[in-house]
Design a protein that fits this description.
5-stranded mixed beta sheet; Immunoglobulin-like; 4-stranded antiparallel beta sheet; 11 strands; 177 residues; flat; mainly beta
Amino acid sequence: MKLLKKVTFAITFAAIISANFQCASPKVVTTQFEKQTPFNLKPVSFQEWYAGIKVGTTGLNVFLPVTNVNQNVTIDRIYFRNLIGKLEKKEGKYVAVLQNTSKGYTFKKSERPDDYPFDLLDYECVISYIENGVTKYYKITQLNEVAGTYYENGPPSLYLKATTSGMATLDDDEDDN
């Protein structure tokens, strides 16, 4: 009988210890993703950007075309390629400028921080929105990539208007003849 008590105590003690001291693996929050959103979402796209050599940083612009947002809903953040960004409304869509945490002139995916809440593939993102005071998450499983861009003086600001109104093209000017 004493042996049975000792075995029971040892098993119980081992279970308590293992529950409190788990392996040092990164914890991923299991989040319940919404199946539908209280707004219409068109295809999401992203663009890598590169800053000048003096600035030496890279990042991503994410474009989220959203329409018919209910008044009780606030579009909040985006989680993409181990980066988190605030979504700001600009010119009829939501935009986030995500600056890469790794320094350098060439684009390299940021390392996943220990407190990053999601385990996502490279073409997946999660947007958070607040509906009636409750934060909800919606997972987008396919983003479209558009051609990258170069910013000589660093990442763009969402709050500054463009200094030019024209669009760059690769077409030859007809006046050169």
